[in-house]
Specification:
There is one protein chain. This protein has helices at 31-34, 56-67, 85-88, 117-125, 133-145, 226-235, 241-246, 255-270, 295-302, 308-317, and strands spanning 90-93, 101-108, 150-153, 161-166, 172-174, 180-182, 188-191, 196-199, 203-204, 217-223, 273-274, 279-281, 291-293, 321-322, 331-334. With 342 residues, it is of the alpha+beta class. α4 (117-125) packs across α5 (133-145) and α5 packs antiparallel against α8 (255-270). The longest helix has 16 residues, at 255-270.
């Protein structure tokens, strides 16, 4: 049969015409094999305390630990040129409790267009509508690494500044879905020098979105207070993949790698150049937490012998730092930044 992408389930919206296969495809080859499609989709139920598992990386960590396998992350490297990003864009955070860190990368000279088929079809497989190579890169990293990101059209931001502040009571913003939202003073906003441009951690604003003619990008990578995002998203009945993760907590340390991964994808699929460095403000840097762990206490609670060597192996497999056992039988455990539940 002659089919379009939508008829084959490879696009959500109605396709403009017949899907033309690459000339390298051989007659008789199964379509998933010819197009290098994923043949399996894992549907995993995650408990609310395991925010670290809301990504491919999170499930890979669990698998690596359970089966004693190595964990390999994609290599991230890209060239930078031009003026320093920190000199081009200032970051101002009013309340460090609401936003412990806000980072931004600047990319200039991009060409907005469709993403490569491999990225579009993977997003469709997880229920995400492909939009453009710039937006798709942020969504791809969201599902791959668990860090929500947002791409602003730099030319729509006024004053070369990004401000993170609470809304004024009754203030309004029109979000990407075209709806005007009335805000409370507890809602958190991302603003430029003149106006609000996004509802922090929930949805971007219609006045700063990437469009077909956009050429410059400000890529937001931030951490927000979970309770604030949860209250805003629920009150406005505006759930999103981003708010779902911010509500449960994201990895403040790992967010740097996620940001760079998205930049590399954008440069690969949309061209352009990344400005050197990062425009950032981190009023509340991540501080590792210390936990006292006693194998003898674990044995008492579980009713089964928990040898210290076994406990150490499991904790190390989870990414924890361990010290020598002190005279009272306590091991000082430092959980990794992505395990907020420990």
């Amino acid at each position: 049969m002659i089919c379009s992408e939508s008829e084959l389930g490879l696009a959500e919206e109605k396709s403009p015409g017949i899907m033309v296969l690459p000339e390298t495809c051989k007659v008789g080859t199964p379509l998933p094999e010819a197009l290098s499609l994923d043949t399996c989709v894992l549907d995993v139920s995650i408990t609310p305390n395991r925010a670290d598992c809301l990504s491919v990386l999170g499930i890979a960590r669990e698998t690596a630990m359970a089966f004693d396998l190595p964990l390999t992350l994609p290599e991230v490297a890209y060239p930078e040129s031009g003026p320093e990003a920190a000199k081009e864009l200032a970051i101002d955070i009013e309340d460090q409790e609401q936003c412990p860190v806000y980072r931004a990368k600047i990319i200039s000279g991009v060409t907005v267009g469709p993403s490569p088929d491999r990225i579009r079809w993977r997003l469709l497989a997880v229920g995400q509508r492909p939009i453009s190579n710039i937006v798709d890169a942020t969504n791809y990293v969201l599902f791959e690494l668990g860090q929500p990101l947002h791409a602003f059209d730099r030319n729509k931001l006024a004053g070369n500044v990004v401000r993170v502040r609470n809304a004024q009571e009754g203030e309004r913003i029109t979000t990407l879905d075209g709806q005007e939202r009335k805000l409370l003073a507890r809602d958190l906003l991302i603003c430029d020098a003149e106006k609000s441009v996004a509802l922090a951690g929930v949805m971007g604003g219609a006045n700063s979105e990437m469009a077909d003619g956009s050429t410059d990008v400000v890529l937001e990578c931030a951490v927000f207070r979970p309770g604030t995002i949860r209250k805003t998203a629920r009150r406005l009945a505006l759930p999103s993949e981003a708010s779902y993760r911010f509500e449960r907590g994201v990895d403040q340390v790992g967010s740097v790698y996620a940001m760079n991964r998205a930049v590399a994808l954008m440069l690969e699929t949309a061209g352009g150049q990344a400005l050197p460095g990062v425009a950032a403000a981190e009023p509340k840097p991540y501080v590792p937490r210390g936990i006292g762990f006693r194998p003898a206490r674990a044995t008492l609670l579980l009713g089964e012998e928990m040898p210290e060597a076994f406990c150490r192996k499991v904790l190390a497999g989870l990414g924890c730092g361990l010290t020598d056992t002190d005279p009272t039988g306590v091991i000082a455990v430092t959980p990794p930044s992505h395990r907020l539940d420990l």
